[in-house]
UniProtKB/TrEMBL annotation:
Residue numbers binding Mg(2+): 13, 40
Residues reported to bind IMP: 13-16, 38-41, 130, 144, 225, 240, 304
GO molecular function: adenylosuccinate synthase activity; GTP binding; magnesium ion binding
Source domain of life: Bacteria
Reactions this protein catalyses: IMP + L-aspartate + GTP = N(6)-(1,2-dicarboxyethyl)-AMP + GDP + phosphate + 2 H(+)
Cofactor(s) the protein needs: Mg(2+)
Pfam families: Adenylsucc_synt (PF00709)
SUPFAM superfamilies reported in the protein's UniProt record: P-loop containing nucleoside triphosphate hydrolases (SSF52540)
Protein name (database record): Adenylosuccinate synthetase
Location within or outside the cell: Cytoplasm
Pathway: Purine metabolism; AMP biosynthesis via de novo pathway; AMP from IMP: step 1/2
InterPro entries to which the protein is assigned, alphabetical: Adenylosuccin_syn_GTP-bd, Adenylosuccin_syn_Lys_AS, Adenylosuccinate_synth_dom1, Adenylosuccinate_synth_dom2, Adenylosuccinate_synth_dom3, Adenylosuccinate_synthetase, P-loop_NTPase
Record-annotated active site: 13 (proton acceptor), 41 (proton donor), 141
Amino acid sequence: MANVVIVGSQWGDEGKGKVVDIYTEHADQVVRFQGGNNAGHTLVVGDEKTVLHLIPSGILHKGKRCLIGNGVVLDPQVFLQEIKQLKQKGYLQDDSQLVIDGNAHIIMPYHKAIDVAREKKSGARKIGTTGRGIGPTYEDKIGRRGIRVADLVNPEIFARKVKEFLPEKNFLLEQYLGVAPLDETAILEEYNAYGQTLAKYMGNISLLVNNSITEGRKVLFEGAQGCLLDIDHGTYPYVTSSSTISGSACIGAGVGPRFLDQVIGISKAYVTRVGEGPFPTELHDEMGQKLREAGNEFGSTTGRPRRCGWFDAVALRYAVRASGMTGLAITKMDVLNELETIKLCTAYAYRGELLEDFPNDLEILKECTPVYEEVEGWQSDLCDATSYEELPEKAKAYLKKLEEVSGCPIILVSVGPRRDQTIQLSNPFQA
């Protein structure tokens, strides 16, 4: 028996959805444990592409139970749209395959309105949020003003909470942010309808997961975003609103740390970032644009072009340490196919010093410049490789270099977007 946590090793968008989809074959349950619909996982099976923002990526496998934990914040409209999309494609024919925890918090219309208005008011000091209301929802959760799934499915409790909370939100929207207030009646009408539909999906995720583990079933824990966007351990304040490192799986799903056996970090063969904040290896030249075009680096949630740069081993070593990673999955190796030379950052230069550890002071990070090593590119197409042995020697050399500078073994390599364009070196569920 093994239970596996999947987390992003960079600033998100590393291809976690594809890896979760692949590892679901070996798992009995998949649990999403944090974040909201500010993250998008793109899955390609055959020629069909599916983009999910809330529902775990394992949902494309028949008979696998997919759970949304208490650590997630849920936009009911997006959730129900995803269900509709999946059913239209022939997935999720059995509703018992999907369960959401009653303690997960609901994203309300005022959360989204506040999120968008704050960013607009901040101007040049904006964080670069998706405007989906994620941060304001977590604020209310911590402030004990949140509305949970269990509240939403109970019309009486839901109405009482909206009546209590909305005046404060409307005051903020009108008097400080300068936008129109929201109508209580319209909110109740829309969200009561959501609650009626959501009721059949509500359950106790902590109980379900712990019972499964006790019975010897295998559980895959799916995270969103990446370690460098963690609210505590990321490049604060340019981070997401939840904890993205592996320890969050315990809190966001209600399980003890002794049940987490393997932690797999997902990392691109280069680096991308969406939103504001320092990015030491970012490329502002033709090469950055080339990586963006070759990797189709546009956000699956917002469509925003991603900032692109060379692989950053300093940042990855930090992510490996913070999440206790036992293995790495390297994605988008094929994006580098045509390059004659490839750079990777192994240290930072800061005011005459050489830094090999990721600084926790944002002001220091802003001044860091990358120290690069250069390796030869393989200049051949990897997309048809089905085993490690079939990879060009120079591609193998690059992977070995990534292992060396990160201090973590590589257990999976993705050479294309499809499910079958994946080379598995070892199976974490059998470790």
